[in-house]
């Protein structure tokens, strides 16, 4: 069973697609969101959950205080499950984008004047997604991020480090059994405030 770990909807169960997705375990989600709360990036955050599957990561963020969450998923059954979970949990500010991740990203940021509109990007692609495709996703994503934003990529522990594009840099990684979490942030421009990942772990 998959459930929301903590926050406003803590303990509520989530539906998952019958096949074709790989839900992040409750243990890994608990560890991930503890780290994100330590970095102080959740409260009021604008969040995108790419390759959303059941929407568990984005919905966990909404439960813990994120203000705006977009679940991006293209597989029909997973989209239906995302919409069901959004409806049943009733968390405000959550919506589903039923399209391919790169199609959605390549429209560009939609903030005022094209300003960055994402504080937290949760990227959980299929483990068999080719590295070159992941590189394209991360490159498309970089322009959406607030200068204080954080990117988390979930991969198999046997996969190499994600291919970060120019403008993004890793600041942490954690491993939980077969799962690896990679944390990255925008490279600050000269004179800009240090992103949250520069805090002591």
Automatic annotation (TrEMBL):
Its EC number is 2.1.1.171. The gene is rsmD. It holds the Pfam family Cons_hypoth95. Residues 1-24 are annotated as: Disordered. It comes from Actinotalea lenta. Keywords: Methyltransferase, Transferase. SUPFAM superfamilies: S-adenosyl-L-methionine-dependent methyltransferases (SSF53335). GO terms for molecular function: 16S rRNA (guanine(966)-N(2))-methyltransferase activity. Gene3D superfamilies: Vaccinia Virus protein VP39. This is 16S rRNA (Guanine(966)-N(2))-methyltransferase RsmD. It comes from the Bacteria. The lineage of its organism: Bacteria, Bacillati, Actinomycetota, Actinomycetes, Micrococcales. InterPro entries: RNA_MeTrfase_RsmD, SAM-dependent_MTases_sf. It is an enzyme of class 2 (transferase).
